[in-house]
Predict the structure.
Amino acid sequence: DSKLIVGDGAMVDDFEAGLHGLTVGEERSVAVTFPSDYSQKSLAGREALFTIVCKDVAECDEPVVNEDFLKRIGSTATTRDEFREELARREEERCAALARQVAHARGIAYIRDAYEFDVPEILCKEEMGLIQKRMQGREEALDDEVLKTRAVGNIRATLVIQKIAQEQKIIVTD
């Protein structure tokens, strides 16, 4: 049994076209020709016949965007236009935050690669413990060598940033 939304483009056009008008309990055969550039190469350009039994038909109703709907979803907007503006503002904020994260990660990676110096073993073990603690509950586990490499990189980046801040007389505040 498979569920699909007709019109979302997840299936081959011939297949979706063959589903139009299908009613619950109806059985129908649908002939399909897979496009020549189909992602599964063994089916590209080939023809197939699917036999389908419709078990359920459901319609997706577009929600009425009114004040009640907006309150239920936690929006502060009171009109559809305000809601659109709110969504655009949220998307801009999300994109800006993502850009800051990417810039931060690139900066840290640059520092890790640009500065090479020995790190005290005690700091390394402490940072390894912190990384392992942050990784708890995740399926992926880091082997000791990867864990140590990441710990050393984090420490180097932290020490370099602290040194730059000290030399530039940068004081971090709230």
Summary: The beta strands are 27-33, 47-53. DSSP finds five helices and two strands in the chain.
